[in-house]
Amino acid sequence: MKNPSTYQAPTHLTSFVSYENSAYFQEMITIEWRGQLQSSSQGKKFKIHYCGEYATDINLLVNDEDYPVLVYAEDIETQERILLFDYAKHGYDAMFCEEYEEEILQERDGQLQELELGGEHTFEIIAYAYHNIDYEEEMEEFLNENNEIELLSGAVIAPEELKRNGFDFFGIDVVNQDGNRQTIVEFELA
User: Fold this and answer.
1) Nearest CA-CA partner of 127 in 54, 51, 52, 48
2) Residue 11: phi, psi to the nearest 5?
3) From 45, 53, 102, 154, which residue has the greatest number of CB atoms within 10 Å?
4) 3-state SS, residue 145
């Protein structure tokens, strides 16, 4: 199965998504990109490591008071680690609105925890992003005096990269060994 969305995967996930399991692509909305995570060796079972807090009242990973959320998946066979989501680097807010001290960002690796849900540690992972901003129509707003798209960090990117990575919502669902699906990440990013 090919990508069922009109949007491309965010660039940090391009090499790590599959569209084979049609059950994971039901009821998509028109502004949505969605993909199932797979490792370089085509593994689809992962442990999840995160920095942040798991808020049990809403069953979601959230920023804690010191660190923005950081989520990795680790292939259970090869231990390949894949960056799923970094609140400080991915999406519209990270590109144009919010900046964090590099020291804080580096400290997060030492704060990683393994996600456990209902006694389980291994999951299939579905990532998705919503694209509510029409960058074609609003491109002028993002150009600097040199007609370049300059991010808050000072990096200059191409319009295609803006369209792929300037998503305004990002989510992650996990599927346990019984096929039960649960959302663990939901962030509005604009």
Assistant:
1) 48
2) -60, -30
3) 45
4) coil
For the chain, domain boundaries: 11-188
Nearest to 153 by CA among 70, 71, 97, 91: 97
d(CA 28, CA 19): 13
Cα 148 to Cα 64, 95, 105, 135, distances in angstroms: 34, 14, 27, 14
Distance from C-alpha of 177 to C-alpha of 179, rounded to nearest angstrom: 5
What would the pLDDT profile of 79-120 be if each residue is shown by its tens digit? 999 999 999 999 999 999 999 999 999 999 999 999 999 999
Q: What is the DSSP letter of 117?
A: B
H helix or E strand, kind and range, residue 121: none
Instruction: Identify the pLDDT of residue 145.
Output: 87
Type of residue at 182? Q
As a whole number, the mean pLDDT across the chain is 96
Q: How confident is the model at residue 136 (pLDDT cuts 50, 70, 90)?
A: confident
Q: Please name which of 87, 76, 80 lies closest in space to residue 53, comparing C-alpha atoms.
A: 87
